[in-house]
Amino acid sequence: MKIPLFPAGLIALPALLFSCGPDETRVREMVAEAFASRTTISSINQGETIGPYSPAVRAGNFIFVSGQIGFDYESGAFAGSDIESQTRQALKNLSGILAQAGLDSSNVVQCNVFLTNMSEFQRMNLVYGGYFSEDLYPARTTVEVGSLPRGALVEIAAVAFDVQ
Length: 164
What we know:
By secondary structure, this protein is of the alpha+beta class. It has two domains: 1-37, no CATH class; 39-161, CATH 3.30.1330.40. Helix content is 27%, strand content 24%. Strands 1-2-3-8-6-7 form a six-stranded mixed sheet. Strands 4-5 form a two-stranded antiparallel ribbon.
């Protein structure tokens, strides 16, 4: 008997919690099958990455978008020197990647926000809050970091879910 899978290819949590699911070997096989179907979303509307990573990766119904900074790839410069401008551009970059996957901000289920100065949180949050519908705010983690690529003030990564 095969345990039903969630759209992302993960085993139903109750089956694992109550130990009535498949054995460890089958669990490993199921996870491997789910990840074998992952694809990289490689066609994006921004400049090259700053390192060996993908701008986004699709794994099942999930799209994992790498951190986006407030860099305007068309002009080759930051959108501005303030947190609002850079947050707006980071979200614009994120939107461009989501759009290429056929998604938008309503599909985002989780974000990680990295700030170089936590005292900028409220100003960042005002821009960030306008990007999502009030009834569809994703889960979020915000942390202060020592520095970000290219001297950015903010970086935003996201996980989106495609209901297909």
